[in-house]
Amino acid sequence: MRTKRYISLFLAAALTLSLAGCGMMNKGKKEDGSGDMTIQPAQFTEEENALLDLLAIQADNYRIFDFQLKENSGVQSMSLTTYELVEGDWKAIAQSQKAFTDPEGRIALTVGKITDGVTTAVQSASGGGSDTYTPTPEDDVSNMTFATSKLSGPASIELDQEIPLLLQVATAKSEFTTYDVDYFGMPRELAKHGYEHVYAVTVMFSEKTPAQLNQTPPSAEPPAE
Question: What is the pLDDT of residues 32-68, one digit of tens each?
Fold first, then answer.
């Protein structure tokens, strides 16, 4: 219980302490004429790093991203989806859809092994919230090695296009390869290696409302390989 309280405290702090700093950074971008819509790894503030040290929390289990949208971009919702690779195609196993219109904010993923649970959290000027999901694989994954890649640099945001934030391989093989998140767009390439489990977490910004998105079930349609 104490560990969960610490995790909740860190998530709240990580999502809120430097939103002001994020806003100042993005204000500068607007003033210099650049209006790109991007998402990129967040830079921890001194306060956040101090909190990490105080709580003795391993930051590697937290993937935190800042995103910037254009003013009047028309965005009505944000979707965070967890996928598993099944027979060469991505299958959605969890999804969080939120009404969203703010021009900037933060996303945090709390994840070690995806099979132990994934918490997705969002914070912006209008508020925030979080969701937790734990996949239940049929096989025993206790002796498997988990290798995780995350979005490592700025990525352009295009409406109604999924952006992979995290890619994780779980396998009992003695040799395996860690893949960049861009391999989300090449599921058949990933499937060639026969890893027992491959997971991905994506974000999508849309002009559709959550209700409109729910009229069509989520499906991953990466670019043609």
Answer: 334 689 999 987 778 877 776 776 665 556 788 999 9
Q: How distant is the alpha carbon of residue 40 from its chain centre?
A: 10
CA dist 157 to 1, 142, 148, Å?
A: 37, 36, 22
- The pTM for the full model equals 0.81
- Strand 104-110, strand 118-124: pairing: antiparallel
**Sequence letter at residue 66:** D
Task: Give a three-class secondary structure readout of 112-129.
Answer: CCHHHCEEEEEEECCEEE
Instruction: Please list, residue by residue across 172-204, b when 16 or more beta carbons sit within 10 angstroms of its beta carbon and e when fewer do.
Output: eeeeeeebebebbeebeebeeeebebbbbbbbb
120 part of a folded domain: yes
Give just the sign of the alpha carbon dihedral 197, 203, 208, 210. Answer: positive
Tens digits of residue pLDDT in 176-218: 888 999 999 999 999 999 999 999 999 999 999 998 888 765 5
Total count of residues recorded for the chain: 225
Residue 14 lies in a domain: yes
Does residue 222 fall inside a structural domain?
Answer: no
What's the domain range around 201? Answer: 2-213
Number of domains in the chain: 1
